[in-house]
Amino acid sequence: MKTRKLLMIPGPTPVARSIQDQMGRETVAFGDPAFVKDFKELLEDLKVLFKCSGEAFVVAGTGTMGMEMAIANTTKKGDNVLIVSHGFFGDRFIDLCNRKGLNADVISSEWGETVPVEKIREKLKEKKYAAMTVTHVDTSTGVCASVAEIGKMMKEFPETIYIVDGVCATAGEPEYVDEMGIDVLLTGSQKAFGVAPGLTMLWVSQKAMDRRKSLGTIPEFYIDFEKWLPIMKDPSKYYATPAVNLVWALKESVRIIKEEGIENRYARHKKYAAAMQDALETLGFKVLAKKGCRAVTLSNLVYPEGTDDAKFRGLLAEEGIMVAGGLAAYAGRMFRLGHMGNIDKHDLVSVIATIERALYRAGMPVELGKGVGVVQKHLMD
Ligand SMILES: Cc1ncc(COP(=O)(O)O)c(C=O)c1O
């Protein structure tokens, strides 16, 4: 019999059966009254869950489209944009902004660390920035930015739109849009929501909507807030065809989140991350992100000296889990493990046990059961 494969890459994450069922439903017209009602309820739920008094958007596309949508609707050619980067996905905003004729300034941290808030404040004082981007969790480093603390500081810079990339965070890391002073929060369906890839979700403050208005006609067509807003107010209207089955799938994911309770979901992610990170360190891996800025949605694990990345990840796949490799300078030196969305205790124990078997088969020193014991202890706390 074939061993089942657990999908433990940092997105897409495992899709629960009830969410899959929504994707398997017979597709209806986007104007179908029952679908329109479902879509409307979903948008309302999203605003309530993430505490946003502004607008919510759900549009077919990926997280990268959300990044582009955030920038396109809040800046115009020639504007200054500040990019706070904690890795590969923070850097993705650089090319995006450059192509749009924006002047992008970047402040970066070493991989595994964050840019201090004071440094961001000093940079913002240098000139007028139309927008600033912060990646909540950079998937390349497993670093979590101090989104709330930065939001507090942003009150000193009311002319700057605060954009948060929540692709690897939203629904796992706490995010309260109004309270944190976030102007645009963007995310994708395939990570902590546990839906298949294909939807971008954004939460937009009134301030950011006003900015969009002040820009007049923008060059972008599909991703224009002003084109989508009437549809988000009344989903029976047409602008471009909504991804009907993915909308249902997201609605089911939101139902699961509400059933769990979003605060409980945040607490669960925190507990699971501590269990996994502790167990993996016990097994000899080093968590790249420094303590104090570690994400709860994934862990980026630097190998012990002498580990053959391809062999190790190959053995892991044979033993039953899929993980991702390191990016950029960490390619071959690290693996990335997602632990977000709709996973449970069984997954945690299996994953650590599988990693122990792969280490054993790779000839690395490992005491079978040691990591599992650490997870078990965390789960009993
Ligand atoms: C933090 C972050 N931002 C943006 C993206 C891009 O999202 P997508 O691949 O859905 O376009 C990713 C993808 O992993 C990500 O992790």
UniProtKB/TrEMBL annotation:
Gene3D superfamilies: Aspartate Aminotransferase, domain 1 (3.90.1150.10), Type I PLP-dependent aspartate aminotransferase-like (Major domain) (3.40.640.10)
Span of domain Aminotransferase class V: 58-330
GO MF term list: transaminase activity
UniProt cross-references to InterPro entries, sorted A to Z: Aminotrans_V_dom, Aminotrans_V_PyrdxlP_BS, PyrdxlP-dep_Trfase, PyrdxlP-dep_Trfase_major, PyrdxlP-dep_Trfase_small, SP_NH2Trfase/AEP_transaminase
Domain of life of the organism encoding this protein: Bacteria
UniProt keyword terms in alphabetical order: Aminotransferase, Pyridoxal phosphate, Transferase
Coiled coil: none
Cofactors named for this entry: pyridoxal 5'-phosphate
Family: Belongs to the class-V pyridoxal-phosphate-dependent aminotransferase family.
PANTHER family in the cross-refs: ALANINE--GLYOXYLATE AMINOTRANSFERASE 1 (PTHR21152:SF24), AMINOTRANSFERASE CLASS V (PTHR21152)
Descriptive protein name: Alanine--glyoxylate aminotransferase family protein
